[in-house]
Specification:
Elements (H helix, E strand, L loop, with lengths): L15 H15 L3 E3 L2 E3 L4 E4 L9 H17 L4 E4 L2 H22 L3 E10 L5 E12 L3 E3 L1 H11 L2 H21 L6 E5 L2 H5 L3 H11 L7 E6 H6 L1 H14 L2 E7 L6 H4 L6 E4 L1 H5 L5 H16 L3 E5 L4 H9 L4 E3 L9 H9 L1
Parallel strand pairs: 3-4, 6-8, 8-9, 9-10, 10-11, 11-12, 12-13
Antiparallel strand pairs: 1-2, 5-6, 5-13, 6-7
Helix pairs in contact: 3-4, 5-7
Length: 347
């Protein structure tokens, strides 16, 4: 059906167990590694299954529903199979609604940015902000970024959204600087789709120029999973960003599979320790040992350390004791709209 999509027709099925057996065999057979010129390669298969006549009585409907099930199999981690169901169809319809409404929200500028302060743990002063996107839909209500960002990435809308976030964050930072808060930095999240896009460097340079922002006052954050997805390419792109003069932050550190050896190859200025480690600091002494070790490694690589998800005074005290540099979390402030942020800075 396409470069990497195939249809298998299995006639005369008497039981669902037969379909499961065929799908299992396909997944197992295709996952066996093979060699080309001494290099080992791996394939994974995502299989969507529709049944006649339950899932359609004509060819087009059966293919469409098998396709829907296949994408669900991909979302569930690939290398598996999924049967079509009406629940899956509802989910797909929901995603189509999100996509259509998101396109309108982008065109009509209905997205908003909130800012969460980053606090120097020694002085207690706000020294940086992280820009976080928010979407309040007139009928859908609050739509979580975890719902619409994956849709934006799948459809390519993340490029437009990313450009808007970058420019809006720089514009608001300039406004804060003009009001006297000259030393604040601004952190903006960058997705893998943006990293891969050819215009990322130019977009960053344009935003800095248009709003007269010093490069070292802008921090671009990538997650550990992004850093690990295509290491050589990502490292190359990060070095290109460093040439502009912006700072780079590695977000959600500790949740993925990156090695410390790989960490030293990244041109990263800031290491952000994931909230999962911070959440159990008060109950788990082993967790304190791990976080302390991460801080020491980061400091040895001349990185600043920010702990995310700090919610209690006790967590703040522990992090201060083990030499964390900055903290971010509800203990100091939730993400705030611009007006409320100005009130907090003023107070």
């Amino acid at each position: 059906m396409g470069g990497d999509e195939f249809i298998i027709l299995v006639p005369g099925i008497d039981a669902i167990s037969e379909v499961r057996e065929i799908a299992d065999n396909l997944v197992k057979s295709l996952s066996i590694p093979y060699k080309v010129r001494e290099n080992e390669y791996f394939l994974s298969a995502s299989i969507g299954i529709s049944l006649y006549p339950e899932d359609g009585k004509d060819l087009d409907t059966l293919i469409k529903n098998a396709d829907i099930a296949m994408y669900t199999a991909k979302d569930n981690g690939k290398n598996n199979y999924t049967f079509y169901s009406t629940e899956i169809n509802k989910d797909i319809v929901s995603r189509v609604v999100i996509e259509n409404e998101l396109r309108i929200a982008i065109e009509e500028e209905r997205l908003n940015l909130y800012y969460q302060p980053q606090v120097n743990i020694e002085t207690g002063k706000i020294i940086g902000l992280e820009a976080l996107i928010r979407w309040q839909h007139p009928t859908l209500g609050f739509v979580s970024p975890s719902t619409f960002i994956p849709v934006a990435e799948e459809t390519g809308l993340i490029i437009k959204i990313g450009d808007w976030v970058l420019n809006k964050a720089c514009k608001d930072l300039k406004s804060l600087q003009d009001s006297g808060w000259n030393s604040l930095t601004m952190s903006v999240n960058i997705s893998m789709i943006q990293i891969l896009h050819k215009d990322l460097i130019q977009s960053v340079e344009n935003a800095l120029h248009n709003f007269d922002i010093a490069p070292d006052q802008l921090k671009l954050e990538i997650t550990e999973s992004v850093a690990m997805s295509q290491p050589e390419y990502v490292i190359s792109k990060l070095y290109s960003l460093k040439e502009i003069g912006v700072d780079l932050a590695l977000d959600d550190f500790g949740t993925g599979y990156s090695s410390l050896n790989y960490l030293k190859l990244l041109p990263v200025d800031v290491l952000k320790i994931d909230r999962e480690f911070i959440r159990e600091l008060e109950e788990d002494t082993d967790n304190i040992t791990i976080v302390k070790a991460l801080i020491e490694v980061a400091h040895s690589l001349n990185m600043t350390v920010i702990a995310e998800g700090v919610e209690t005074k006790k967590q703040d005290e522990i992090l201060s004791h083990i030499n964390c540099d900055q903290i971010q979390g509800y203990y100091y402030s939730r993400p705030l709209p611009m007006n409320d942020l100005v009130k907090l800075l003023t107070s």
